[in-house]
Amino acid sequence: MTGARGVAADLGLGLLALVPSVVLYRGFFESAAYWPVAAVAGIVGTGCAVAAFGWRWSPLVKVLSAVAGYVVVVLPVVLLARGGEPWTWAGAAREVATGTARGWVTVLSVGLPAPVDHRVLVPLALVTFLAAYASAGLAIGSRSPVAPAGPPVLAYGIGLVVVATVPGTSLGLAAALAAVVLAQVLYRARPASEVSVRWGAVACAVVVVAVGSGFAVRATSVFGTGALRADPRPLDLRAAETPRVLTPLADVRPQTDLDPPRPVCAVTLAADAPGLPGVAIAVLDRFDGTIWTTGGEFRAAGQRLAGAPGGPASRRVNARITVARLRSPFVPVLGQPVRLDFPGARAAVGFDEASGSLYSPDIARGGAVYDVTAELLSADPPSRAVRPSENPDDEVYRRLPPGLPPVVRQLLHEVTDPEPTPTGKLAALNTFLRGLPYNRDARPGHSYADIARVIAARQTDDDGYAEQHAAAFAVMARALGYPARVVVGYRIPTTAGVHLVSTKDATAWAEVRFPDAGWVPYDPTDPTRTERRTPPRAVSNPTPADEPGPPDLASAANRPESPHQDQPPGAPWSVVVATGAGSAVLAAALVVLGAKSWRRHRRRRRGDDADRVIGAWAECLDLLTELRVPAARHRTPGEVASDAVTALGPRVAPLADLAEAATAAVFGPRHLGPDDVRLAWATERGLRRALYRGARLPLRPINRLNPRPLRKRWRY
Which keywords, in A-to-Z order, does the entry hold (predicted)? Predict the structure, then answer.
């Protein structure tokens, strides 16, 4: 390939091959604002490679030029992230180095969709820049038609690992990448030379095999789709600071005891929000028989929050929350948040997709203002025909530790057995708990023993408050086999306007998951009910000598295994990477082996007698190249044969006869006949057997995969 136009077209195809790897991140980021950074990285990387390889700089200068070009790309990204804050060159260099070295921790742990900021953009710019630089450098400095296609393909593979569980298919992008790579390979192979034509045919076969393999891999779900694709994010838990609060549920009583109450936040509802149970700060889904805790994984969040989708009857509500000061790093939210905006400086926030909880020590210190867009369920309760979720994925929300008091099981039967439907049982349970006396001075705690004391003990000891009531509802709902959890938050009015929230509004409620409606709240606490129950409820504690009590309803949580549970959820990402790397090595070996076999066939069968004699001589030169015996192009065949005898000994002496035949083929081709061709190729086979005898025999299959001879073009 010669001429400026040919080089420009080759470089353009290399840049075009990077486009699929950039488009692959469209669902990873919350917006398309990452495109300019990726485009600049690709263009600057190509420009640096053109200068470095076009002017044939030394290796050190090439490395320095690549570093300088990369800094030119990422330095503006880092400086723009600082806003109007003052900066120094040393500080900027430190941030660039930190983002380059540790940016992958953020990429592999950020909540999706990821914010378009420098923490995530720097690694993307690094991959795109290096791929563009390497592709352009190979396009200029290498004769191989397929070498420039390697970096874009590698960048695409890295992107597949990064996007992981982003919904959507990447098969279309893979097909586009294969098409561009094929076009570039064929373009580079266009000269009508023996080697180039062979490379074009092999490249076509390789691309076809690669696309077919992609379909096969897709069909066998090695990579999977959507949530089933292997995701590297769970391997890194450093996305956000792990909450150190023991359980926010135990903090309900201390907050309500504060006198005077302390301000927590101000919530401005843009519209009425009927059915809103309150402002939530923490969702607790793990119970060990003593305390409720959260098992959420908080990952760095951006503007868009990808949490559990709401039901078809859900609606969106907007609210502005102004934080005074929080007692824990859990941040107030409404319903299932889907968007988080900051009118001022953006705080670092961790988000748990499963629960919709936010975690931010920066916001907890006070003074932060943020806007929340959340999904709320319909204010109408679920119909009596609806059953709670039976999805095997919700098993964690049905799980109860051993030790549920028998008195709780017996009372649960008395309350819920008259109701034939699940929603009726939950409503009866909620009504029963709301009928218990409310007392903020009751003993704290929400263990099995505390729940048994509140709901089934003597009349003088059955008072409690939101902590016990919410915990009791969640435990008893799980004992019925329903997925349930506890939510800690603050009561607020559901009308539009500004509502001031203080510590006296602290409360807790329970939620049960329904398949179409999502998490439906139940408030089992009535703060206005301060009198005791009438008549008093006395429940006897069954003993082993008594009649057998009702069966252990906690076993209802052990659902029959789903027919899909035996299917693997997707191969681990390490298996995927290892499979891809092994496939790449195998493909490269097959390409080399096929190219050598095809070239040998052409040399032996194509052309006249002189061409086939020269082909036998060229095969011997390839053999010397595999054994690292120099065969310079400027030396005559006789001189090359003499050098080979000096290096390898008398066993290659027949090479001198073949050298004479090759010289005759160049200067007197009419004097050669079929017998000379047979003798030349017999000499070639004899030399190959002689050189790979004894200890050298294992080297023969290894050297057959050596690509070095493919870069040589012997011309006589």
Answer: Membrane, Transmembrane, Transmembrane helix
Rounded (10°) angle between helices 194-219 and 573-605: 150
Tell me the two tokens of residue 704: 């057959």
Q: How far apart are CA 569 and CA 60, in angstroms?
A: 47
**Domains of the chain with CATH codes:** 4-230 (no CATH), 248-376 (no CATH), 392-487+507-555 (3.10.620.30), 607-711 (no CATH)
CA distance 582 to 146: 18
ω into residue 260 within 30 of 0, thus cis? yes
The whole-angstrom separation of Cα 399 and Cα 558 is: 8
| Encoded tokens for 425 | 């049982």
Tell me which residue has tokens 């039967």: 413
Q: What are phi and psi of 414, to 5 degrees?
A: -60, -35
Beta bridge partners of 464: 438
Helix or strand (DSSP H, E) at 283: strand 279-284
Nearest-5° angle of CA 599, CA 605, CA 608? Answer: 115
- The two tokens of residue 137 are 């450098």
User: Full-prediction pTM beyond 0.85?
Assistant: no
DSSP E strand boundaries for 324-405: 330-331, 336-341, 350-352, 357-359, 369-376
Structure tokens at 715: 């011309």
Q: Is 651 in contact with 691 (CB distance < 8 Å)? A: yes
Separation of alpha carbons 637 and 313, rounded Å: 85
Quote the DSSP letter at residue 544.
T
Q: How many C-beta atoms surround the C-beta of residue 628 within 10 A? A: 10
Angle at which helices 466-479 and 406-416 pack, to 10 degrees? Answer: 80
Tokens 């192009």, located at residue = 633
Q: Which two tokens stand for residue 453?
A: 């004391």
Q: Is 330 helix (H, G, I), strand (E, B) or coil?
A: strand
Dist CA 164 CA 224 (whole Å)? 9
Under 8 Å between Cβ of 492 and 267? yes
| Cα gap 196→190, rounded to integer Å | 7
CA 376 to chain CA mean position, Å: 28
Q: Which two tokens stand for residue 465?
A: 């408050």
- How much is the pLDDT for 379? 58
Peptide bond into 535 cis (omega under 30): yes
Quick check: helix, strand or coil at residue 60?
A: helix
Structure tokens at 500: 């001031």
| Two tokens, residue 41 | 């990285």
DSSP string, 505-537: GEEEEEEEEETTTEEEEE----TT--SPPSSPP
Angle at 353 between CA 349 and CA 359, to 5 degrees: 25
In this prediction, residue 41 carries a pLDDT of 92
**Which residue positions in the chain have pLDDT lower than 50?**
1-2, 191-209, 211-243, 534-573, 575-576
- The tokens describing 328, both together, are 């824990």
Beta-ladder partners of 240: none
pLDDT at 517: 78
Query: Are the C-beta atoms of 709 and 622 separated by less than 8 Å?
Result: yes
